[in-house]
Amino acid sequence: MKQIVGVVVVALVAVLNLYVAIPLGYGFELSANAIGVAAFVGSVGGTVAMVFVGDRIMPVVRRLYRRIRPKEDEGGEGGDSGEQKS
């Protein structure tokens, strides 16, 4: 299941890259063929780079997140009455 979610996320990022690249290419007054090739190469290259960099950067992000997130036993509102807040 984790791999399926990863593939879907990567596919969505590739699509978003294409949606950004096409109008940007027209803004730079490039030809349609140049926009298509550049969008495809950038989308595939960016997605591959994201996969490889993501594997290396996620352990660092997890460590930083653990440092900054509040501890469950520190502070907070209310007491230990066991009631859930809605």
Architecture overview:
- This protein is mostly helical and 86 residues long.
- It has one domain (2-68).
- The protein is built from 2 helices and no strands.
- It has helices spanning 2-27, 32-68.
- Helix 1 (2-27) packs across helix 2 (32-68).
- It is elongated and about 55 Å long.
- The model has no long low-confidence stretch (mean pLDDT 76).
List keywords for this structure.
73% helix; mainly alpha; 86 residues; 2 helices
Largest sheet: none
H/E series, N to C? HH
Q: Indicate the radius of gyration in whole angstroms.
A: 21 Å
Portion in helices: over 70%
N- and C-termini, Cα separation: 31 Å
The number of domains: 1
Mean pLDDT: 76
Taken as a percent bin, the fraction of beta residues is under 5%
Assign an overall shape. Answer: elongated
Number of helices: 2
SSE-based structural type: mainly alpha
Give the number of DSSP strands: 0
Unreliable runs = none
Outline:
The chain is mainly α and 86 residues long. The protein has helices spanning 2-27, 32-68.
List the helices and strands and how they pair.
Blueprint: H1 2-27, H2 32-68
Helix pairs in contact: 1-2
